[in-house]
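Lab notebook, design round three. We kept the backbone fixed and only want residue identities now. Task for the bench partner: fill in a sequence for the structure below.
Input structure tokens:
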């Protein structure tokens, strides 16, 4: 969950600097590659560009940010760089699922991520395990499980809502469908 939060924060933060990221290599190529103002996910595009840059190019692209924000983004990018290729794909898929939601739902998911981070360690572990278990379920089975008495008795209403929101960005598992 920390990685997902990091990816969401990186992409969200990068949308503010997307013009700088796009402009970092425009001078070298002579081409204008400014993002389309209708691009609904400029932060995601900026993340992709930053991934392809050398450390020097990244530094230049992030140079206009406040130092604290720049340091946060650089740290999250380093964490992302350390992921295996499979983990990167999984994180990108979750980000794509997040971006496919309407803005209001995206905000609810972000709020649920923050709530998850604030849970006591024992509850966080329990909720994380449940989310991992639900990630292996097809969407319809996941929804059915969250409507069972057993699920409702095991988790507080706030935890249930949090998992409901977070389940929207869990990978869709089609392998288990009958």
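Proposed sequence:
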């Amino acid at each position: 969950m920390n990685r997902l939060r990091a990816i969401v924060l990186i992409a969200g933060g990068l949308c503010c600097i997307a013009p700088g990221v796009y402009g970092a290599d425009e001078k070298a190529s002579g081409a204008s590659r400014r993002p389309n103002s209708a691009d609904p996910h400029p932060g995601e595009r900026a993340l992709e560009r930053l991934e392809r840059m050398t450390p020097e190019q990244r530094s230049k692209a992030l140079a206009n940010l406040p130092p604290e924000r720049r340091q946060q983004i650089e740290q999250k990018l380093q964490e992302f760089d350390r992921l295996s290729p499979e983990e990167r794909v999984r994180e990108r898929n979750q980000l794509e699922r997040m971006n496919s939601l309407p803005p209001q739902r995206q905000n609810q998911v972000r709020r649920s991520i923050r709530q998850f981070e604030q849970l006591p360690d024992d509850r966080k572990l329990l909720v994380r395990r449940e989310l991992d278990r639900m990630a292996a379920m097809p969407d319809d089975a996941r929804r059915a499980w969250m409507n069972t008495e057993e699920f409702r008795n095991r988790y507080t209403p706030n935890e249930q809502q949090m998992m409901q929101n977070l389940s929207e960005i869990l990978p869709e598992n089609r392998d288990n469908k009958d």
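Keep this in mind before ordering anything: Confidence is low (pLDDT under 50) at residues 16-37, 174-178.
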